[in-house]
Design a protein that fits this description.
The complex is a heterodimer of chains A (about 300) and B (about 55). Chain A has about 300 residues and is mainly alpha-helical. Chain A folds into two domains: about 160 residues, Orthogonal Bundle (Tetracycline Repressor, domain 2); about 120 residues, no CATH class. The termini of chain A are far apart. The N and C termini of chain B lie far apart (about 65 Å). Chain B has a domain of about 35 residues. Chain B is mainly alpha-helical and about 55 residues long. The interface between A and B is medium-sized, with 25 and 21 residues.
């Protein structure tokens, strides 16, 4: 029955079914997905061994679908807090374009489809790791950690670090040191990246009652933690060299970029509260995205040009 | 006689959106079909003709 041929008193507007295709696309968190796809491609190319290009494409497609599923399930569960945060209030679920149940169904369908496809078409080792990644992001991070501990993104950061490892396992069928090195790059990068965001969006997280480090431990402690994690990133960035994944070009480029990262972290540590601090945080936040892209791009270029690795 | 319950209704705009979503879903299913078919061929490789008839 359409609204035109019914008595007005008989009609209530249909609950749900109003989302457009682009609303559903937004549920996949396409910007996050683009970084996931890129790091997964690097994992696929850097892994020792051979995979048929078509199966490589299927692997990346499944990882992208899995990342999209995680995004949709995250938006289903977090609709209440997304609604009160400026950065997320226009997402499809808090905006009312898509009902939470629709987001849940969409996310679960994609999650199951991506894992089954990867398992049936490529191998079950990588499918199991993809399933664990989705589980980790949705259940461990979104449902378990995010609302209860300021360590949410330290532990939850693992979810974002798994994609290159999933791609690696698609090639080698095993988790080895090289894949752990790629994992650690993203894992160590996540806390300073998100804490820099949290420092200049502190009010948003406070309003949503999310225990991010700045509103639980305070701004000085957050600045100190950003600096500590950035210092830890310096040895971590050389792990791909020590595990035979990357060579001299990577070592020089990534080493330089990490020193710039460290300098930005020192700027945040030294900055006084106010506009100076906000500026330093925004700078590190922006640069950290570039850092992740550039570091993985260096590995990709080295492997594509077949440059020698050191180990 | 029991009171008639209000009927959920879709506006013309809702129906248009639903049609677009359905078309995209149909394309996705067709793509899945193609993906499985090509993957089967790729996995069978050179042995594609070696089968019991």
């Amino acid at each position: 029955m359409t609204i035109e041929n019914a008595e007005f008193s008989d009609v209530i507007l249909a609950p749900g079914g109003q989302g457009t295709a682009s609303d559903y696309f937004a549920l996949l968190k396409p910007r996050v997905m683009s970084l996931v796809i890129f790091t997964a491609v690097v994992g696929l190319v850097a892994a020792p061994g051979h995979i048929h290009p078509w199966l490589g494409f299927i692997t990346i497609l499944c990882i992208a679908l899995g990342a999209g599923a995680s995004g949709a399930l995250n938006m289903w569960y977090d609709a209440d807090i997304d609604a009160v945060m400026k950065r997320t209030a226009s997402r499809p679920v808090p905006r009312g374009a898509i009902l939470p149940g629709e987001a849940l169904g969409f996310g679960m369908t994609l999650a199951i489809a991506s894992v089954l496809m990867l398992g049936l078409l490529v191998n079950w080792q990588s499918a199991a790791l993809l399933a664990f990644t989705i589980f980790f992001y949705v259940v461990v991070y979104t449902i378990g950690l995010k609302r209860y501990t300021p360590q949410n993104i330290v532990i939850g950061g693992a979810a974002g670090a798994f994609p290159p490892m999933v791609a690696w396992v698609a090639v080698t069928q095993t988790v080895d040191l090289g894949s752990i090195a790629l994992f650690l790059l993203i894992f160590m990068w996540t806390p300073p990246h998100f804490w820099a965001l949290a420092l200049f969006r502190e009010g948003d997280y406070d309003k949503a009652n999310i225990p991010m480090l700045p509103n639980v431990a305070g701004r000085p402690e957050t600045r100190k933690q950003i600096l500590i994690y950035s210092i830890l990133l310096v040895p971590i960035v050389f792990l791909p060299v020590l595990t035979g994944v990357a060579g001299m070009v990577y070592a020089a480029g990534a080493g330089f970029l990490t020193l710039v990262f460290l300098k930005d972290a020192i700027d945040i540590y030294r900055a006084a509260d106010g506009p100076e601090s906000d500026k330093a945080c925004k700078h590190l936040f922006g640069f950290s995205i570039y850092w992740l892209f550039a570091v993985f791009a260096l590995i990709l270029v080295e492997r594509l040009l077949n440059l020698p690795v050191l180990m | 006689m029991s009171e008639q319950k209000p009927v959920p209704a879709f506006t013309a705009e809702d129906l248009k959106r639903r049609k677009k979503r359905s078309i995209i879903m149909a394309w996705c299913l067709a793509a899945l079909l193609v993906i499985v078919f090509i993957t089967t061929i790729v996995k069978m490789g050179a042995h594609i003709a070696d089968r019991v008839i």
